[in-house]
């Protein structure tokens, strides 16, 4: 394998001069530059990207830990990260989580070994405290409110919009409200904020029989509706974890010629607009862009972005 020293030996110039040519630096005469370049071309030499990254102290890569799910939280937040990274001259490396603790720890170890300049966790299963020691190797960013934990964060401030949403539901006299949540509230900040807002407005815990976990897709919404109907539960309102999920609910009732209960989605998707149902815009693309700025060191701290409740009335 050809090295920079081989080029220096064959061309008769120093390694430093060859390095200037490779890195398009000044202080090399046109004739010397042309001669060295001819040797480079003849040997078909390509600089080692890893070595170059190590020499300049940056990889220009940002790792992004996410789930491979067609949910707006992941698609929109990743779109925001990608757009901001492109504008800043960075590359994005997508890292699958699957909520595997060992895999998430392995990504932190890759940060320690300088595989990335920074690491964004759009979601995670390991305790946030495990991430803290790795901040000395590069920015570590989470995409939820970390509370009192001292870590960089970009997140949607869902709480106030959830209060508005459940207040709207309460004012319309709905009593049997079903919740379609992403995960157990003990594990998911989104689910926890949803349940907290429900309890604040209704003054009671959500009905366990009407609360469904693992709701992330249209198919999950369809399955939830089937579950309610099959078990004779009959909620009069369903609060879904996304407009597409609410659309799945609506389709089940339509397919079976049943009266559709009240519906509310999230994420301001086209499906929700076509249904004309209330929704919540969490501005995930802006969250992603902010997370990228934190990951490349252009910002620090905790950045909460306001969510908007939209009645579509």
From TrEMBL:
Q: Which GO MF term does the entry hold, naming one? A: DNA-binding transcription factor activity
Question: Where's the HTH lacI-type domain?
Answer: 2-56
Give the matching Pfam families. Answer: LacI, Peripla_BP_1
The residues forming a coiled coil are: none
PROSITE patterns per the UniProt record, alphabetical: HTH_LACI_2 (PS50932)
- InterPro entries linked: HTH_LacI, Lambda_DNA-bd_dom_sf, Peripla_BP/Lac1_sug-bd_dom, Peripla_BP_I
Give the SMART domains listed for this entry.
HTH_LACI
Annotated keywords: DNA-binding, Transcription, Transcription regulation
Please give the superkingdom of this protein's source.
Bacteria
Could you identify this protein by its name? Transcriptional regulator
* Native source organism of the sequence: Lacticaseibacillus sharpeae JCM 1186 = DSM 20505
